[in-house]
Write a structure and sequence with these properties.
By secondary structure, this protein is an alpha+beta fold. Helices cover about 45% and strands about 15% of the residues. It is a multi-pass membrane protein.
């Protein structure tokens, strides 16, 4: 069964890797083929000669697994087809639409506006059921459930496409959001009526907590967002600096509603209901006889626990950890209700299949693999612990394993090693409690029925003939008299030689209770017995013949062993999640074992319960509870900050290959396998090394790899050589408060193995080029910083230098050279920021790339005129188009080197053109004379600099094979002079989808087409990777290289 459940999950995962959704005919043929094979197999399987063959069930298991795989893929395919059919049609994209509906979630308030989930009213054709909207400066605070009427502009779900980056379009599809957009206008005030009750409850709880939270007026306490996240799952109030600490220490899973928190809360509620149910809802003392309750107390407690977990999960937003926990609790509850006790791995497999059936897109979520992977590792570690503590696990210490031993006894001794939580099978005949105890001492497992009620008795271990016996006797009666009383059980245990453990359940009068003899020792030794009577309460026990101080000493003596067990489990989880952490995030916390050992008890036992009390208790109690919780969290954060401070606190590695991942998973299995020896564990550690030390795909010496990242309306280009990396621009800052640096650049750097930047160039200070500087500098060490921006920029720290024309260096036989701006313009605020963009040329021995920033046509012509002195005269004459200026240009240019053109074009030509054009009807001889004189002075200033570079050399340094299109393809750039001088083969336009600037301009796009240049747009193709190999190079568009069914089909290269 487990194989089939995991195959269903694998089928859903396979579907998410498809370029297009398969047709239903293929699924029909696959299912028909599997069924036909199954029928043929069954006919052959039941032949008399086949039924006795070993391994005859293997083909049936294979067929069932394949069928489950096909069903999983088909289910995910149907869900994806339905969801994508509800997306916004292209015909409605970008149009003004009037929608009425209600706010369906907690609004996200940021500095640039409010983002919220909107549910339009049914009836509008083509409008999705859920829309994500942004509203800049709303007139009032938005709240869940409010009804509004908006005029909006929408677009289909679409996101950036980068290697190893966050897939926004996939996330939107998983959340059921069919369009995104923004509010252009709104009707005054919300409309009458409210909906979204769960979101309203979450908002009310959040408001209560903020009102009771410690802190100054209007300024919440630092960790208020953490307390809110632990109570209702809203993590948006946690500061980024705190997230960095939690990430570096590996406790991010604790600052949300995790499975542990849901289990604790549901277990507490279930225990309370169980106790109340057993005591007739607290009325047992006032009633002469118990209430005739229909359900046994155990089943009532299960129902209460499941309902609590489901309600709390819904309030938390039902993220993957919550969904996993709720699914596991429901599976376990159904199994226990029906009298079964499945092994933990079966419960986990059912929970995974249920979670994926509900949300097929969760299979690609990091939370899915981390959550289920952690629980699987915990089960594996627990099995290993039980084997280590079980004498039956050691054949040398097992008398039943000796030759001639009873096979039944040997099987009984080894049963627990097969499954630590295997359940007892019920026998065919009922037995009394006394019979169950005798059977336990004799090595019999059984179920007990008494007075029409059902019980269970299990023998975990038994030895006869002078061996020890351990026995448990459970009493399920509410009355004082019992069929096999606790005293009888204790006497039975004390009368045994050695140790006896037996388990039984006895029912009487329709009610159930438990009495347990946990352990007893006799034969000249002390007698210890623990009897738990569930009439007193769940978890309450009275030890037979043992005083309270002795009982406390015994419990304290077990504390070191419990701490050691918890440490082993935590260490196993740390090791087991290393492959998932490196694969999904490119890093793993080295200090996570220590941090979690401290944080788990503090957060789970102190902070989380007090946060829940603060969310629901009256104001005075809530204030005290939240103050204590905040203090505890603050103390914990100080210790975590100390752990996160060292640079070695986090180990980073590049994106591993599938082969390295497979080796690492095998290594984890060998390290944690229950019956593994020391030698196998060493092999397991060795198998993990390739993944841990992965450094990415290297670049050959003398070659380069250039990646034009898809950052929306902005620029970010990574240039890699054999042992160096340079980042040109950092992308824009987003309205959500984050940036392309944090969302795109940093994950890409980690995945490609770039642990430090040898150079960071910010072409100029505009937000679409410098928006991610802070996030990048906070995540990656930077050696060299260059920019043309003047000092005093908000993102500028110490150590920034100016980029100037003529600066050049060589890394790994790859030449880097700045062609613009001149030294007199760099860092000069009097010049426009775009005009002084850093222009960088990167060249190998055969190929080159030119990165141009946001320079305009004037700067392009100035750079292009450096080719030859003859070209200077011709271009200046054409641009100025005035006889006086033309004479000046033609007389000056032949006598100087190409550098004169820079100053003539920027200083003389614009002024001359403007003055003469506006005053040609008047006498402006004096103005023209002054312009000519200034041109002459500029020519003399740069003449010496220009003579150092021959014209032919200047022409060769400008020509490039790949051109980063200036200013995103605006109408003020990409002049004919630049295209003629550079003569590129490939042009890359970095821009945003449906950007408000209309980039690229149609005439600019046509200009490149007329010259036969291959054009790529990052909004259509995703990230563009150019890799040189000698005289050849390859261009890899990400959307074409990694296609998925939810992404728009990329166009062919143009």
């Amino acid at each position: 069964m487990r194989a089939c459940l995991l195959a269903f999950v694998a089928g859903c995962w396979w579907l998410q890797q498809r370029e297009a959704l398969p047709s239903w005919q293929g699924y029909a043929w696959a299912i028909a083929g599997v069924c036909a094979c199954g029928m043929g197999w069954l006919r052959w399987r039941w032949a008399p000669r086949v039924r006795r063959r070993a391994g005859a069930r293997v083909p049936s298991l294979v067929l069932a697994t394949v069928l489950a795989l096909v069903l999983g893929a088909g289910w995910a395919n149907w869900r994806a087809t339905v969801r994508m059919a509800a997306w916004l049609p292209d015909t409605l994209a970008g149009q003004n639409l009037v929608l009425s509906g209600f706010i369906a979630g907690l609004p996200d308030v940021a500095a640039h506006g409010t983002r919220f989930l909107f549910a339009p009213d049914a009836g509008a054709e083509g409008i999705p059921e859920r829309v994500l909207l942004s509203w800049r400066n709303p007139p009032m605070a938005l709240a869940p459930g409010q009804r509004w009427e908006f005029t909006v502009r929408l677009k289909r779900p679409r996101g950036l496409a980068n290697p190893h980056g966050f897939d926004y379009a996939y996330w939107l599809m998983g959340e059921g959001i069919g369009a995104t957009g923004y509010v252009r206008a709104a009707r005054a005030g919300p409309l009458p009526g409210h909906r979204a009750p769960i979101a309203q409850v979450r908002a009310a709880l959040r408001e209560r907590m903020h009102n009771a939270m410690p802190g100054d007026a209007g300024v919440p306490a630092r960790f208020a967002g953490v307390l809110v996240a632990l109570a209702i799952g809203d993590q948006r109030g946690i500061a980024q600096a705190d997230w960095d600490i939690f990430r570096r220490t590996g406790i991010s899973h604790l600052v949300s509603i995790s499975g542990l928190h849901i289990t604790m809360l549901s277990g507490a509620v279930g225990g309370i209901v169980h106790w109340l149910w057993r005591h007739s809802l607290g009325l047992s003392r006032r009633l002469r006889r118990p209430l005739p309750l229909r359900w046994p107390a155990r089943q009532a407690g299960l129902v209460a626990a499941v309902v609590t977990a489901l309600a709390y999960g819904l309030i938390a937003g039902m993220q993957i950890p919550a969904l996993r926990t709720v699914a596991m609790l429901m599976v376990a509850a159904v199994a226990l209700w029906s009298g079964r006790c499945p092994p933990p791995t079966m419960v986990l497999a059912w929970a995974a299949a249920a979670a994926i059936a509900i949300d097929p897109w969760a299979v690609m979520s990091p939370g899915f693999w981390l959550s289920f992977g952690a629980v699987a590792v915990i089960f594996l570690a627990a099995a290993r612990r039980d084997l280590a503590a079980d004498p039956a696990a050691d054949p040398a210490a097992d008398p039943a394993a000796e030759p001639g031993a009873d096979p039944a006894a040997r099987e009984a001794r080894r049963g627990r090693a097969k499954d630590a939580t295997a359940c007892t099978r019920r026998p065919e005949s009922p037995r009394s409690a006394e019979t169950a105890a005798r059977d336990a001492r004799g090595g019999v497992r059984g179920a007990v029925k008494c007075d029409g009620a059902r019980g269970e008795a299990r023998l975990a271990e038994s030895e006869a003939g002078g061996a020890g016996v351990r026995g448990e006797v459970s009493d399920h009666r509410l009355g004082i008299g019992v069929s096999a009383s606790a005293g009888t059980a204790a006497r039975d245990a004390r009368g045994a030689v050695g140790s006896v453990r037996a388990r039984g359940a006895v029912g009487s009068n329709g009610a159930r209770g438990d009495a347990l003899v946990a352990e007893s020792e006799a034969a000249g030794g002390a007698v210890r017995g623990a009897v738990s009577d569930h009439r007193v309460g769940i978890g309450m026990s009275a030890d037979a013949g043992e005083s309270a101080p002795a009982r406390m000493r015994r419990q304290l003596s077990r504390l070191p062993a419990a701490i050691a067990d918890a440490a082993r489990v935590q260490w196993a989880v740390t090791i087991g999640l290393v492959p998932f952490s490196l694969l999904l995030f490119g890093q793993v916390s080295v200090v996570s074992a220590v941090a979690n050992a401290v944080a788990i008890p503090v957060v789970s036992v102190v902070v989380t319960p007090l946060s829940l009390v603060g969310a629901v208790a009256p104001a005075p109690v809530a204030s005290v509870a939240l103050a204590v919780a905040h203090t505890a969290m603050a103390w914990l954060a100080e210790g975590l900050a100390w752990l996160a401070a060292p640079s070695w606190a986090v180990w980073e590695a590049a994106q591993p290959s599938p082969f390295a991942v497979a080796l690492a998973l095998i290594g984890v299995g060998l390290l944690l396998m229950p019956e593994g020896d020391r030698g196998m564990r060493w092999y397991g550690a060795a198998l993990m090394v390739p993944m841990v030390v992965s450094s990415g795909t290297p670049v050959e010496h003398g070659e380069m790899r250039v990646t034009f990242l898809d950052v929306g309306q902005g620029t970010a280009v990574l240039v890699e050589t054999r042992s160096h990396a340079l980042l040109y621009d950092t992308g824009p800052a987003y309205q959500s408060g984050t940036s392309a640096g944090a969302q795109v650049v940093v994950p890409f750097l980690r995945a490609t193995g770039v642990r430090r930047l040898d150079g960071l160039v910010v072409s100029h200070e505009d937000a679409d080029h410098a928006g991610g500087v802070r996030d990048i500098e906070a995540a990656v060490p930077v050696a060299l910083r260059l920019t043309s921006a003047p000092p005093g920029q908000p993102w500028m720290s110490a150590g920034w230098d100016l980029c100037e024309a003529g600066m050049a260096w060589v890394w790994d036989d790859v030449r880097f050279e700045f062609l613009h701006p001149l030294a007199t313009h760099a860092g000069n605020a009097r010049h426009a920021s775009n005009a002084r963009s850093c222009v960088l040329r990167v060249a190998t021995a055969h190929r080159s790339v030119l990165l141009t920033g946001d320079i305009g046509a004037a700067e392009e012509r100035a750079i292009a005129r450096r080719e030859t002195a003859q070209d200077v005269a011709q271009d200046v004459a054409q641009d100025v188009a005035l006889d006086p200026a033309q004479d000046v240009a033609q007389s000056v240019a032949p006598g100087v080197a190409p550098g004169v053109a820079q100053d003539v074009a920027q200083d003389v030509a614009p002024d001359v053109t403007q003055n003469v054009a506006q005053n040609v009807a008047q006498d402006v001889a004096a103005d023209v004379a002054r312009d000519i004189a200034r041109a002459a002075r500029n020519a003399e200033t740069v003449a010496g600099e220009a003579r150092e570079r021959p014209a032919a050399e200047a022409a060769m340094t400008l020509r490039s094979d790949i051109l980063g299109v200036p200013h995103h393809g605006s109408g003020t750039s990409s002049s004919a002079a630049l295209l003629r001088a550079v003569a590129p083969e490939v042009a890359v336009f970095q821009l945003g989808h449906r950007n408000r600037y209309g980039h690229p301009r149609a005439d600019v796009w046509a200009r490149y087409e007329a010259r036969g240049i291959h054009r790529y747009r990052t909004d259509e193709t995703g990230a563009i990777t150019v890799t040189t190999r000698g005289d050849a190079y390859t261009v890899t568009p990400y959307r074409q290289h990694v296609r998925r069914y939810w992404r728009d089909a990329p166009p062919a290269p143009q």
